[in-house]
Design goal:
The protein is α/β, with parallel strands linked by helices. Helices cover about 55% and strands about 15% of the residues. Strand 3, helix 4 and strand 4 form a beta-alpha-beta unit. It is elongated.
């Protein structure tokens, strides 16, 4: 399963790239609002760092507005994917983007039927929001499982991207459900790295190493000095 970072923070993206685990990035207006500045310049920098797709979301609510924004994003870098919300206008925009060869990420999917429609329209990525479904007492992973089965059963040219990931267990469940991608906050990525027993083991090994070196250094020191002898008189 590919791992995307759900952020607009450059340093977080650089860190994940250095770890060698970054496959792509997803952004949205809320994430951009936390950073500010020029959105275009930010996207260009993210695309430069990221080895895979970078999702840039349109905010227009009409088809022509979505197309105008999405085309402008697509001109910024070859790895841009235009993020379009699931709605009637969004489906039309996705279809027209696909005709132009522009890849899209259909966002705000909350049912397998919505994902099926987005795939039929030509979306490259399908983004069900797992955490938000869990928030209203629905099983978000059920949508992932159903949509993965639909995509694979009917050989649809789309990938399922588990979004709204809240904790490491969501990542595990998405992987087991067959999701092609999961996009997660940097905090969750950090949590995946760490485990109390791992951290404890590292500290124990470090402490034992320091003790062993101290003991070796102590044993190497001379325990005493011989009395200096004066040469015999002749």
């Amino acid at each position: 399963m590919k791992l995307f970072l759900d952020t607009a923070e450059i340093e977080e993206i650089r860190t994940a790239a250095r770890w060698g685990v970054l496959d792509g990035v997803t952004t949205n207006p809320s994430l951009y609002a936390k950073v500010g500045g020029s959105y275009d310049e930010l996207l260009v920098e993210i695309c430069r760092i990221t080895p895979g797709p970078v999702s840039a979301e349109v905010v227009a609510d009409d088809v022509e507005g979505m197309l105008k924004e999405g085309r402008a994003f697509a001109r910024l870098a070859p790895n841009i994917v235009v993020k379009v919300p699931m709605c009637e206008e969004g489906l039309e925009a996705i279809y027209r983007f696909a005709e132009e060869g522009i890849k899209t990420n259909c966002t705000l999917i909350f049912s397998a039927n919505q994902g099926l429609l987005a795939a039929k329209a030509g979306a490259s990525l399908l983004s069900p929001f797992v955490g938000r479904l869990d928030d209203i007492n629905q099983d978000g992973m059920e949508v992932i499982r159903d949509l993965v089965s639909i995509v694979e059963m009917h050989d649809l040219d789309s990938e399922v991207l588990a979004a709204s990931i809240r904790h490491p267990r969501h990542v595990t469940e998405a992987a087991l459900a067959g999701s092609h991608i999961a996009t997660l906050p940097f905090k969750v990525l950090q949590q995946m790295v760490h485990h109390p027993l791992t951290d404890k083991g590292i500290q124990t090994f470090r402490d034992d190493w320091q003790k062993a070196r101290a003991a070796a250094a102590a044993s190497a020191k001379p325990t005493g000095t011989a009395s200096a002898r004066k040469p015999a008189a002749r």
